[in-house]
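Quick review question:
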């Protein structure tokens, strides 16, 4: 099987993630700042846990090449993506210590610990199936938004977010990640018990991404920013 089989098997859940109202409001520039700030803080906490999950991928790897690949992801997350996130958040008035002090919201705990638990319980392929919706989904969202003529480019307060995920650097690393997942999946038959279990993991993580967007929107109701 290939990564596209995972998406095809849960197309409805995938579309709900990729086309979520949070994403559409970002594209239009209409998202409430309360929602965006809540999302940014939770995403900082998410990325820290995500780095832990790639550290687990080093532990779970079977080959030296896979260990090095996962190490590269840990390094990129800690020294590039999270640092970038911190300096980006400073433009929105959030400091690193503000974000460190923030409590993890229920959706953040649920998603990240689901990924970690899946990896701890399962093998390297289970772990990558749980990690896959993150980079594959944001890359697709970035491509969609930059290709859509209705995306507001001028005067959109969220344009930096859009250009980050539409940008060459993120697109390239997501494509590498996807190619790696394809090599891991190559030996597995879609119809087998193993294949169906991987679909279930991928679909759960996809639903967690949708819940993560919704958690951002819900901040407007809770007034907790
Ligand atoms: C919740 C979430 N999913 C995916 C990405 C992409 O890195 C992100 N930053 N946050």
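Suggested answer, residue by residue:
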């Amino acid at each position: 099987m290939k990564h596209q089989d995972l998406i095809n098997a849960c197309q409805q859940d995938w579309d709900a993630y990729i086309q979520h109202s949070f994403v559409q409001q970002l594209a239009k520039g209409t998202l409430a700042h309360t929602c965006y700030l809540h999302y940014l803080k939770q995403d900082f906490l998410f990325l820290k846990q995500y780095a832990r999950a790639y550290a687990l991928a080093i532990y779970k790897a079977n080959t030296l090449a896979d260990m090095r690949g996962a190490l590269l992801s840990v390094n990129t997350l800690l020294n590039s993506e999270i640092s970038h996130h911190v300096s980006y958040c400073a433009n929105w008035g959030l400091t690193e210590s503000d974000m460190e002090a923030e409590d993890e919201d229920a959706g953040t705990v649920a998603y990240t610990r689901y990924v970690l638990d899946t990896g701890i319980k399962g093998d390297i392929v289970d772990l990558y199936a749980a990690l896959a919706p993150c980079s594959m989904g944001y890359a697709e969202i970035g491509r969609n938004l930059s290709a859509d003529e209705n995306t507001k480019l001028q005067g959109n307060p969220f344009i930096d977010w859009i250009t980050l995920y539409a940008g060459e650097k993120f697109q390239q690393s997501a494509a590498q990640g996807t190619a790696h997942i394809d090599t891991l999946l190559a030996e597995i038959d879609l119809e087998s018990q193993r294949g169906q279990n991987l679909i279930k993991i991928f679909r759960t993580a996809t639903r967690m991404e949708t819940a993560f967007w919704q958690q951002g929107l819900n901040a407007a109701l809770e007034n907790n920013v």
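Why it works: The chain has eleven helices and no strands. The mean pLDDT is 96.
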